[in-house]
Structure formats: structure tokens, C-alpha cells
């Protein structure tokens, strides 16, 4: 397998096992996943219903993967990052059906990429960061630490004040919120990883753009991709800006 998988309750990361050794700096081309790079096989479906239910998006220039390989060949410093919200994927526990299906889907996508021209080289430059579903227990309102003095917290099992578990719950809940676009947690995590790769040369990480379909247009379901780019300070592009240009 080309990538290692790191799983936290609020974050799933696929990183290349043998990342490309960049000389001096990295140019990051970043993308949303669903309805930007892939879509369900069924024409009117919003999300796939099984790990195999996907195909590469088709644009004027052909399948999305073809354009990505073209970018790779034109930019020797190119790195590719996918940021995706997966609100239906529960990663805690990592044995959940939704997580196992998502993992299998990503592995199938990576396998398909490997089969195209320059696919292996592309995989060595590809990172995937996904936010996941907040468990129902954390979706409920969690009392604050400075609530009424002396009040026994409902999360306490001892009948006494139990601030450490409560603080941990609050921090964990906040992590889920931080990782979900348009919040910037996925970007921060990725930027840190890429800088570690460059640490021997101390070169810059140049974020070229973030490309996504949720741009707040009349036909879009939201503007979350556009706001994500705004929040991270990265130039925003809709898929047509990238994939319909020859």
C-alpha cells in the first residue's frame, strides 16, 4: 500500500509512505474530494453508498486525474493535498462500518491513481486529510468549567467535581469543530506535516490554491470551500477554473 493511515476520533490522514524529497520548496495544489475530484457512479446521487460507488469527475479536459497528472508534469515542486469533510464517517471506534467503508474507498482511489500514467510518482506527492463525524455523546451540550460553583457535574461518576474528564470532553468536542471545514484545523495539521518534510532545507511551503465545489453559487449546497480558503488565506478556485483549462 502506498500510504499509511493515521486515525484519530476527529481526523483521518493518509500520508505517503515514501514521500517525494522536495528540493528547497513545495508548491501545494489542494482540493476538495467529493464533486471536485470524484462523484458517485449514479448520475443524480450526492454521496456514494458503497466503497466502490465512485468515479473520477469528468471535465472538458477529461477525467480529473488526467489534469492532476498534467499539473505534476508541469510543476516539479508540486504537492497535492485533499481536504474533505466526511460527516457520515465515525472514526471512534475505528472498527465502525462507516470508517472501514471510507478507508476502503480511499484505498480504491489510490489504487486507481497508481494505474494511470505517472501514478506512482503522483502518489508520493499526495496527502489526504479528512474530518469525521462527532459522536452523539459530544454533540450534546457539554457544561462549561465555570458553571455554578459546587454543582456536581453530570459527567462525574464519583458524585464529586470531575474537572479533568470534563475538560477532556470539552477539548475533544472542540477538536471536531476545528477540523471541519470551513474551520482551519485540517490546513494547520497539513501545513505542519509539510514543513517537517522540508525541515532539512528550510524552504517555504507555497499554497498555490484550494479548489472546491462549495462556492456559494446558486446551484451549490454551501459556501464552505470558499470560506475555508478565505480562513486559511489561500487563493480559492472552483473546479472549472482548474479542470476546464487546457
TrEMBL record:
Domain of life: Eukaryota
Pfam families the record matches: PNK3P
GO biological process: DNA repair
Gene Ontology MF terms in the entry: ATP-dependent polydeoxyribonucleotide 5'-hydroxyl-kinase activity; double-stranded DNA binding; polynucleotide 3'-phosphatase activity
Record-linked NCBIfam families: DNA-3'-Pase
PANTHER family per record: BIFUNCTIONAL POLYNUCLEOTIDE PHOSPHATASE/KINASE, BIFUNCTIONAL POLYNUCLEOTIDE PHOSPHATASE_KINASE
Name assigned to this protein: DNA 3'-phosphatase
Gene expressing this chain: KNAG0A05210
Amino acid at each position: 500500500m502506498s500510504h499509511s493511515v493515521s486515525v484519530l476520533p476527529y481526523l483521518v490522514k493518509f500520508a505517503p509512505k515514501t514521500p517525494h524529497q522536495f528540493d528547497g520548496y513545495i508548491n501545494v495544489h489542494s482540493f476538495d474530494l467529493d464533486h471536485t475530484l470524484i462523484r458517485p457512479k449514479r448520475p443524480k446521487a450526492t454521496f456514494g453508498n458503497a466503497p466502490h460507488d465512485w468515479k473520477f469527475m469528468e471535465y472538458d479536459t477529461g477525467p480529473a486525474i488526467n489534469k492532476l497528472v498534467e499539473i505534476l508534469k508541469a510543476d516539479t515542486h508540486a504537492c497535492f493535498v485533499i481536504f474533505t469533510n466526511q460527516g457520515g464517517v465515525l472514526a471512534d471506534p475505528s472498527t465502525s462500518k462507516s470508517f472501514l467503508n471510507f478507508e476502503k474507498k480511499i484505498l480504491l482511489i489510490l489504487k486507481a491513481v497508481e494505474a494511470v500514467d505517472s501514478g506512482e510518482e503522483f502518489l508520493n506527492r499526495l496527502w489526504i486529510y479528512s474530518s469525521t463525524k462527532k459522536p452523539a455523546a459530544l454533540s450534546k451540550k457539554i457544561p462549561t468549567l465555570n458553571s455554578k460553583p459546587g454543582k456536581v457535574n453530570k459527567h462525574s461518576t464519583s458524585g464529586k467535581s470531575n474537572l479533568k474528564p470534563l475538560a477532556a470532553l470539552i477539548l475533544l468536542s472542540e477538536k471536531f469543530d476545528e477540523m471541519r471545514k470551513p474551520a482551519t484545523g485540517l490546513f494547520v495539521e497539513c501545513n505542519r506535516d509539510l514543513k517537517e518534510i522540508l525541515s532539512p532545507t528550510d524552504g517555504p511551503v507555497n499554497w498555490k490554491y484550494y479548489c472546491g465545489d462549495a462556492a456559494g453559487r446558486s446551484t451549490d449546497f454551501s459556501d464552505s470551500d470558499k470560506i475555508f480558503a478565505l480562513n486559511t488565506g489561500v487563493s480559492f478556485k472552483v473546479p472549472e477554473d482548474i479542470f476546464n483549462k487546457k
